[in-house]
Amino acid sequence: MSETDNATKGMSISEGVVIEINGMHKWYGEFHVLKDISLKVRKGERIVICGPSGSGKSTMIRCINRLEEHQRGQIIVDGTELTDDIKHIDQVRKEVGMVFQHFNLFPHLTVLENCCLAPIWVRKMPRKEAEEAAMKYLEKVKIPEQAKKYPGQLSGGQQQRVAIARSLCMNPSIMLFDEPTSALDPEMIKEVLDTMVQLAETGMTMLCVTHEMGFAKTVANRVIFMDGGEIIEENEPVAFFNNPQHDRTKLFLSQILTH
Amino acid sequence: MKEHVPHPDLPPPITNVGVIGWLRTKLFSTWLNAGFTLLAAYLIYLTIPPLIDWAFIKADWFGDSREACTSGGACWVFVNVRFDQFMYGLYPAEEYWRINLAFGLLVLLAIPLFIERFHHKGILAAVILFIYPIVAYYLFAGGSFGLEAIDTSRWGGLTLTLVLSGVGIVASLPIGIVLALGRRSKMPIVKSVCVVFIEFWRGVPLITVLFMVSVMLPLFLPEGSHFDKLLRAMIGIVLFQSAYMAEVVRGGLAAIPKGQYEAAEALGLNYWKSIGLIILPQALKLVIPGIVNTFIALFKDTTLVLIIGLFDLLGMVQTAITDSNWLGFSIEGYIFAALIFWIFCFGMSRYSQSLERKLHTGHAR
Ligand SMILES: Nc1ncnc2c1ncn2[C@@H]1O[C@H](COP(=O)(O)OP(=O)(O)O)[C@@H](O)[C@H]1O
Ligand SMILES: [Mg+2]
């Protein structure tokens, strides 16, 4: 972990920036959901995004792989600006993997087929090679023995780990997590968080929307607090938790830390 | 310290199992149910024995004219004598082998599709869908390869029923899928074209459609151009049924959670790949009962071609019962037709159930 820390510290601001969001706005119809979002993420950085429900966290990270469209401002991912140009969108999606709250595995395909589908059909990888790579990632998330099962036969924690493996099979350089543990029973949260910690140790650039503050403290380089569609505060984890600057941040932290 | 001893599993009470348990719970659970059970038993007693008596015990099976029917029961001699026409219509008897060959070929080609270990199902299915129809057409119609040309007006009986419904089933599913996708499209023109198409064909009865294609269509075509009547009926049936199919498929598409589209998109799959690999396999699986229901309706609806002068199985039966040599045997004719239709429809229904079981992969999501 310290290796990547040193690497990121040594760089100037613009150097090694893989995600750059400048003055980005988004509306759902009349509703102004994201207001003037600016954010720079350097290679290997691990960012935790938190904030009350409805504050726009999901919408923001979904803009990064264009599951949602922004209307104003700029989003540049790995040197490619997100516009209507479908080529740019495809380019960005090749670099960005995403893990969802409800896993969104494909229920009609086995675990292995879930993992191989995109490499075969998007990256045009030969099936055998794709299966070997998929098994490698399934081993990393510690469920190679489930490869032939269907998602419906797995526990929630196992499904989420498959979802992580499925994203990794596309060999992304950035991973987005949208509340990956919120739909899980308590005893399964740890196995998914462990997988994410392990992934962080490989130097993956990660943006995680999560309320797991333990995870934020041990893994994140930066914590971002959002409310009402704005980034209210961002800081290193220690400073963020010990010394929040805004009242709204304080209130939020007191609410999630006390229960 | 106290140790917990698990309670042993006990057998269920005797009154819940076995024949007596079954009778008690299913047939005689209350006084009202007991009454219905006795009433039903009486009705069965009233109807079934005489029916069996008529259809089997007192029936006549063999012979070549109505004089063979002397026992007072059903006269299956009639069906027996007319059997070839019921199957092949007015197709010349010396060319029956062509029809038999075509259907035999189809069965042979289809068998490997049901074998678990056969791995080239995709290629075989493509052969059946794209190459086989051409071969079958040349066998049926003739006119080349030294085969005598046989006009489609002589095709009939069960053959015609199967040809019409086969073409209808094979063509209406893909057209229906495209229409359903179009109806859910974000592009306003595509969407409205599909909506108008679907609502138009769903709004008119099939009889009207058949009349329109057979009477009105020729008026718009250039003078003297020959446009086969069977082909026109096929087009009518396909357009009509694909509108129904579209609505069935749309129901399946609507049931797929948004997360599936998002996951596919996030992995970089484009629209057609997401649809083909992720959405349709799930959506179609969900609506197998609806699809098969439409197939069954289509199969039975083909009988309506009678009104534009094509003679399918039912049409041949109806012609046969008006034959002055065989007056008075309409019941036997209709029962035979009903039996054949029932066998095909029941087969489709059972196949759909086994398909559903086979494709079941645990709980969704
Ligand atoms: N597709 C949508 N259409 C309209 N409003 C939406 C849509 N998705 C989310 N919203 C609204 O946008 C706001 C932000 O949502 P979201 O990004 O999901 O918040 P969070 O993830 O922080 O809970 C919420 O008020 C939500 O109701
Ligand atoms: Mg959210």
Provide an overview of this structure:
The complex is a heterodimer of chains A (259) and B (365). Chain A contains ten helices and ten strands. Chain A is α/β, with parallel strands linked by helices and 259 residues long. In chain A, helix 4 runs parallel beside helix 6 (156-168) and helix 5 (127-140) packs across helix 6 (156-168). The two termini of chain A are 30 Å apart. In chain B, helix 3 packs across helix 6. Chain B has helices at residues 18-27, 31-57, 76-88, 96-110, 121-141, 157-183, 188-203, 206-220, 229-254, 258-266, 271-286, 288-301, 313-321, 330-359. Chains A and B meet through helix 3, strand 6 and helix 4 of A and helix 10 and helix 11 of B. Bound molecules: adenosine-5'-diphosphate and magnesium ion. Residues 28, 31, 33, 51, 53-59 of chain A line the site of adenosine-5'-diphosphate. Residues 57-58, 178-179 of chain A line the site of magnesium ion (MG). Chain A: Belongs to the ABC transporter superfamily. Chain A: This is ABC transporter ATP-binding protein. Chain A: One of its GO terms (molecular function) is ATP hydrolysis activity.
Task: Summarize the entry for a quick read.
Chain B: It comes from Solemya velesiana gill symbiont. With 259 residues, chain A is of the alpha/beta class.
